[in-house]
Inverse folding.
């Protein structure tokens, strides 16, 4: 179990993910905040405190991609793990090139998530 | 002046000519009856005697020499058609009116069924020794052709539905993967909770419950999809158009999200249900939704907005409309509903044609109009189901969807 208590924010419009992922993250030792939309996350002003963002790509309203651009415009580079149920390898590569820590296709294993979290928090520390 | 002996010989000669002319006429009549698969008959009410040509016996499959009555004919009529034909005959006997009826006739071989159309008119001429004169036509080939056409249309509609679902395969996979993601994450968490010392039993129980719920959710998605993949047609159901609109948007939602299409729902409260085939009507709505999304594929200078509305139309109809902010129908308006006409590079052009056929087979109509602003609106209206007691109306909770759990925005109408 990780000894850190880094804040991980989960933004996903799917209820199953919103309910299951936080418990796993807490079990792994992280503090967790959950948001149903990009708009809700932006309104919360939690971005500055978030050390890792787990972000659904395709959501109603502001998409995950637009949220990252909005954060970048505000000078915030939050280490981000994208998650999506749409398997699109070319999109994944593009996101990695643009600085995403990882892009996981749902359903993903806990080991893949843990590896991505470690990478994200290492990136965050580097930042 | 005609000689006396000549006059005496003239009558038989004239009769001979008349007989010949009559025989010729009858031969022509027999030929025309043969060519049209029809036969004339006369009917005497008192004796129930039916007299007709050899062609009549041929159509009915009876021996020509054998006496024929309607009572005998009725013994060969399909049980489903018997009550109405019997009622027609009773009507003829009691009221003396003209009768017309189509019925299935079981041939004496007890295997072959022929579709016969019969019409008869009451005669009130005392010089004629019968009460009714009528005709029977064998329309079996026509009915077989109609059945083949119906089957071909049903197969084409099925093909179009499967193609729609093919176009939505990414969306469908998404619908299943979401609960699968929940299942796998919950199971991982559950194992971790059980592995701690002491085990977190309460937490493990909670995650196990959520695993079950997500498993059921994935199962529900598959059950709903199986209904769409089925070929079987079920008519005569009470169908709630609000529910169909919501389900169609739900299925396409992830595809619409990916295409940056915002959905606005304006579902009228308490609209009557319609009678029909739920899957077919679902297919129509899904087709209109996907067409609308396609029409907005190249739009980048304005929001891609898809609005679905339901509303009552007059006292006994319901209308569903799908409006987009796409490229509009413009010059294509006149040909939109033609089979195999398409403006898409990857379309077959059968969706709208089949949708129109489905709507019309439900007693409704489907049409398209250019918006005042950008885009087009496709509408269909259907007659409401005859019985509209409160339980058969669209539940009020369906209406005025303001923002559902998937983030779909409401119009607040």
């Amino acid at each position: 179990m990780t000894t850190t208590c880094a804040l991980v924010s989960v933004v996903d419009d799917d209820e199953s993910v919103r309910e299951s992922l936080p418990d796993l993250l807490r079990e792994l030792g992280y503090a967790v905040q959950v948001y149903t939309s990009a708009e809700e996350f932006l309104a919360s002003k939690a971005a500055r405190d978030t050390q890792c963002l787990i972000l659904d790509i395709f959501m109603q309203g502001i998409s995950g991609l637009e949220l990252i651009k909005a954060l970048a415009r505000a000078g915030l580079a939050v280490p981000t793990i994208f998650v999506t149920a749409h398997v699109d390898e070319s999109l994944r590569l593009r996101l990695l090139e643009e600085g995403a820590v990882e892009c996981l296709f749902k359903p993903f294993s806990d080991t893949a998530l843990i590896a991505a979290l470690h990478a994200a928090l290492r990136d965050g520390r580097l930042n | 002046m005609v000689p006396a002996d000549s006059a005496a010989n003239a009558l038989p000669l004239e009769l001979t000519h008349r007989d010949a002319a009559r025989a010729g006429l009858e031969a022509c009549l027999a030929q025309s009856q043969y060519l049209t698969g029809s036969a004339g008959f006369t009917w005497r009410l008192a004796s129930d005697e039916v007299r007709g040509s050899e062609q009549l016996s041929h159509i009915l499959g009876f021996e020509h020499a054998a006496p024929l009555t309607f009572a005998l004919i009725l013994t060969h009529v399909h049980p489903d058609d018997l009550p109405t034909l019997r009622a027609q005959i009773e009507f003829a006997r009691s009221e003396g009116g003209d009768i017309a009826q189509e019925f299935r006739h079981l041939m004496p071989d007890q295997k072959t069924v022929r579709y016969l159309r019969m019409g008869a008119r009451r005669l009130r001429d005392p010089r004629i020794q019968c009460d009714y004169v009528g005709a029977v036509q064998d329309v079996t080939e026509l009915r077989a052709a109609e059945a083949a056409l119906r089957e071909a249309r049903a197969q084409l509609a099925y093909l179009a539905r499967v193609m729609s679902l093919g176009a939505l395969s990414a969306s469908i996979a998404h619908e299943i993967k979401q609960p699968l993601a929940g299942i796998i994450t919950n199971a991982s968490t559950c194992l971790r909770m059980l592995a701690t010392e002491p085990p977190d039993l309460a937490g493990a129980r909670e995650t196990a419950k959520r695993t079950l719920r997500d498993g059921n959710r994935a199962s529900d998605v598959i059950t709903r999809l199986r209904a769409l993949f089925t070929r079987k047609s079920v008519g005569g159901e009470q169908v709630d158009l609000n529910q169909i609109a919501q389900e169609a948007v739900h299925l396409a939602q992830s595809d619409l999200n990916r295409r940056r299409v915002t959905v606005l729902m304006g579902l009228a409260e308490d609209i009557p249900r319609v009678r029909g085939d739920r899957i077919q009507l679902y297919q129509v709505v899904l087709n209109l939704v996907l067409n609308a999304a396609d029409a907005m594929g190249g739009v980048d200078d304005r929001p891609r907005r898809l609005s679905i509305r339901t509303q009552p139309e007059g006292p006994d109809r319901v209308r569903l409309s799908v409006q987009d902010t796409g490229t509009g129908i413009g010059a294509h308006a006149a040909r939109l509903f033609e089979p195999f006409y398409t403006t898409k590079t990857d379309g077959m052009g059968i969706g709208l044609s089949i949708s129109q056929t489905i709507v019309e087979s439900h007693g409704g109509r489907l049409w398209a109009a250019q918006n005042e602003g950008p885009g087009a609106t496709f509408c269909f209206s259907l007659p409401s189901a005859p019985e509209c007691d409160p339980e058969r109306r669209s539940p009020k909770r369906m209406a005025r969807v303001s923002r559902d759990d998937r983030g779909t925005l409401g119009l607040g109408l």
Q: What stands out?
A: Residues 14 and 20 of chain B are 10 Å apart (CA to CA). The domain at 37-138 of chain B is CATH 3.30.450.20 (Beta-Lactamase).
